[in-house]
Amino acid sequence: MLGHQYTHSFLETAVASVNAGCNLELSYGMRNNVFMHIPQALAMGNITLQMLRDRVRPLFYTRMRLGEFDPPAMNPYSSLDLSVVQSPEHRNLSLEAAVKSFVLLKNVRGTLPLRAQDLSSQHFAVVGPFADNPRVLFGDYAPVPEPQYIYTPRRGLEMLGANVSFAAGCSQPWCRRYSRAELVRVVGAADVVLVCLGTGVDVETEAKDRSDLSLPGHQLELLQDAVQ
C-alpha cells in the first residue's frame, strides 16, 4: 500500500491492514516490517487489543490444527521420505495430472496425438532451450528437483523408443547466443520437429517481471528457422 501511495508510512499501513482484516504479513529480508508497528498503533489507540485478539486467533487456531506445536513424533508426515513421495502410486498420479493439464491450442492436420507405433519409424528433432534442460522446467516456488525423476521432452521420447536428434540452439532461456547452423542441421533431417520454448525462472519470477510478452532473446528467430 505504501508503494502504491495508498498510505504514507508503515504505521499507517499497519493500521489500515489490521482494520481491513489482514492478520498476516508476508515479508522477506525486512528487519523493520509493517506489522512491527502494531504495538505503536495500539499505544496510540488506532487499533484495540480486542481487534488484535480477533486477528491472531484464527492464525494460531490454524497452526494448532496443522500440528505445528505438537512433538515431531506425533506428526505423521515426519516419517515420510522420497520412497513414499516418489512411490509408483504417487508418480502415476503426477503423470495423470500432467497429461490432463495440457492445453491444445491448434491441431493442424491432426498431427497429435503421435501414435506409439509410429515413433520408431519417424525421425524426431527436439530443439530449443527447454528441450533437454531439467533445471528450467520448474517454475517459481518449486521444490529442489531430483534429476532422476525429471523427464525432459528429449528424455521422454527416447524412453519411448523414438529416433531422436537434439539441438538446444541456445542453452538458456535468455537465448542471447544462438547457434542457427546447429538447429538447421538437426531440423532439416527430421520428419517431426518439437520446438520447446518459454521463459522459466531465469527470465521471470515474483518481483522480476518482463517488460513485454515477446519470447526472450533469439527464441523467436529459433522458432522461425525451425518452421522454415
UniProtKB/TrEMBL annotation:
Gene Ontology biological-process annotations: arabinan catabolic process; xylan catabolic process
Superkingdom field: Eukaryota
GO molecular function, one term: alpha-L-arabinofuranosidase activity
Coiled-coil intervals, chain numbering: none
Domain Glycoside hydrolase family 3 C-terminal: 103-226
The entry's keywords: Glycosidase, Hydrolase
InterPro entries recorded: BXL (IPR044993), GH (IPR017853), Glyco_hydro_3_C (IPR002772), Glyco_hydro_3_C_sf (IPR036881), Glyco_hydro_3_N_sf (IPR036962)
A Pfam family reported for this protein in Swiss-Prot or TrEMBL: Glyco_hydro_3_C
Record's protein name: XYL2 arabinofuranosidase
Species whose genome carries this gene: Chloropsis hardwickii
